[in-house]
Amino acid sequence: MSVLRSNYLNLGFLLGVIALISSVNAENVNRPNIVFLLADDLGYTDIAPYGSEVATPNLSQLASEGTRFTNYHTAANCAPARAMLLTGVSSHLAGVPNIPEMMSPAQKLQDNYQGVLGNNVVTIATLLEDTGYHTYLAGKWHLGATPGKLPSERGFERTFALMDSGADNFEQRPYLPIYDQANWFADGERTQLPDDFYSSKFLIDKTIEFIDSNLKDGKPFFAYVPFQAVHMPVQAPQKYIEPYMAQYDEGWHKLRQERHARAASLGIVPGDVERVEAASTMDWETLSPQQRRYESKRMAVYAGMIEAMDVHIGRLVAYLRETNQFDNTVFIFTSDNGAEGSGPQDPTSFSSRQGPSSLGYNTDYETLGLKGSFNSINPGFTSAAVGPLSYYKFYVGEGGLRVPLIVSGKPLGDVPEQTAAFAWATDIAATIISLAGVEAPGRRYGGRPILPMTGKDLTPVVSGEVEGVYSEDDAIGYELTGHAALFMGDYKLMRNLAPMGDGEWRLFNIVKDPGEARDLKSEMPERFERMISAYEQFTVENRVQPLPEGYSQGRQIIVNALRERLGSGIIIGLLLILLLMPLIVYVRMRRSGGSH
């Protein structure tokens, strides 16, 4: 009898285990895979679903099957955006108000100004991994490269990650002299790139490899693919450059006009938007034929790099179809910030060639964009890449902050083709965990205090349940090295500093006037004052620090790089020499004059 009872107990236990496994598997089946595709420095109208002439059929397909956001905003440069995208917390509070390469020593005295992801936030990768997801990253991290800060220690199960702000797309080479090397890590360990490396291809290869390694266990996956495209150096295989070789011969003014017309026909922007010309945009007609030829090819390489990214996204989609994963996958595609506008006006000049040549790059026309070549687009073409918006990366005009956002996938069901709902970078994190059926953590997680997410879940917008998740009174503030913005309803408060701006506050209706051509400050003084007050509150709540005297983004990058390479003592000596140089020259001139 006791034996029989024991057998019954064992049978009951076995059936319980089977039921538990079945329920877990059923839960996993109902939880979608999530693929988060992040372009780097991609402009608002740089892909076909938003008005571009560049061939992006795979992104166009995802857009046609999903929802395009026309009023989505992000940070004005990369690391702050990535911090918000992965945590749902303000970049200032998450420890990344700016990239570390631009942080001044005075600012770094503050614990929230380290330029790396703080321990007071939890990533969506951690939340998803802890609830049964496989989590993968292949691409640019740029949120910390020291122990405890690597992506392999921030929730990603498998990683192949670039630690820096950018790097060469064909080989393991830094793109700026501020780096000794291109720092790539695989699963937390330094690694070397293969000889046949091209960034967009390799990152998708790795993503497929990671997914495939665990495909049979039935668990859902979260794959984060932060591309290098189209961050400088702008490079692409010749076959992707070739179709665009004559595309841009008429210049940036014409391209900006054409992009605006296509975007308007798609309903992305109003047709009557007034376009404000950036101060950095030269008159195309003043360029010599040789200069026009060179500038046209710079942009052709840029277009080729975008198309190459799209082709490899298509490879990932095809793999998911072949493995019967596509129908249970949600895709999110966006960019970390607007297009990069700091490329030199004349990259062939002696001064412009010095940085690239010191790293072994050339800027020759014949090989422009290929292996060994350093390329970036002219600020004139940058204005077309964000057109018809104003400003670009590093500034808080719409061209720096408003970028494409596509949410697509069969698990979403029937979705609206397009939405004008305002959305912010922190909303991506909240949306991803909602799709995964994961609750946002409170003020503690994993036995430590954390900051709760402030981003809003966008799935009600994607499902068509609501037209927007922000009210007319919700205020979203942002700051980068003194450039400042605040969104409230249809309106935006904006201040851009030199060299592109004048430091004055302005007020725009960015729904009717996304080109930011008509300042409403004098017409709407009460709204202006209300939004100024809201911005001041944002600076207090987010611990925004004042700029050090004489701060400059470019100068700070150089000083930080020299300090890291040469040490503080030598830096002080060099700065003293620079400060004393005019006096030394003056004294020598006086002595020379007195000897005659």
Brief sketch in words of this structure:
With 596 residues, this protein is of the alpha/beta class.
Molecular structure report:
- The chain is α/β, with parallel strands linked by helices and 596 residues long.
- It has 4 domains: 1-30; 32-462, 3-Layer(aba) Sandwich (Alkaline Phosphatase, subunit A); 475-541, Arylsulfatase, C-terminal domain; 553-594.
- Helix content is 36%, strand content 13%.
- It contains 16 helices and 18 strands.
- The chain has helices at residues 2-30, 57-64, 78-87, 124-129, 199-213, 238-241, 252-265, 289-322, 350-358, 379-385, 398-401, 426-435, 459-462, 525-541, 553-566, 568-594; strands at residues 33-39, 66-69, 72-73, 134-140, 158-162, 184-186, 189-190, 221-226, 329-335, 405-408, 418-419, 423-424, 444-445, 448-449, 475-480, 483-488, 491-495, 506-509.
- It has a 10-stranded mixed beta sheet with strand order 7-6-5-4-8-1-9-10-2-11.
- The longest helix has 34 residues, at 289-322.
- The protein is globular and about 60 Å long.
- The N and C termini lie far apart (124 Å).
- The relative contact order is 0.15.
SSE layout:
Layout lengths: L1 H29 L2 E7 L17 H8 L1 E4 L2 E2 L4 H10 L36 H6 L4 E7 L17 E5 L21 E3 L2 E2 L8 H15 L7 E6 L11 H4 L10 H14 L23 H34 L6 E7 L14 H9 L20 H7 L12 H4 L3 E4 L9 E2 L3 E2 L1 H10 L8 E2 L2 E2 L9 H4 L12 E6 L2 E6 L2 E5 L10 E4 L15 H17 L11 H14 L1 H27 L2
Helix pairs in contact: 3-12, 5-8, 7-10, 15-16
CATH class designation of the largest domain: Alpha Beta
CATH fold field value of the largest domain: Alkaline Phosphatase, subunit A
| Biggest β-sheet strands, sense, barrel | 10 strands, mixed
Q: Per the principal axes of the C-alpha atoms, what is the gross shape?
A: globular
What percent of the residues sit in helical stretches (DSSP H or I)?
25-40%
Structural class by helix and strand composition: alpha/beta
Give the rounded overall mean pLDDT.
Answer: 91
> How large, in whole angstroms, is the Cα Rg?
25 Å
Q: Tally the structural domains.
A: 4
Q: Report strand order across the widest sheet.
A: 7-6-5-4-8-1-9-10-2-11
Span of the ends, CA to CA = 124 Å
Proper CATH architecture of the largest domain: 3-Layer(aba) Sandwich
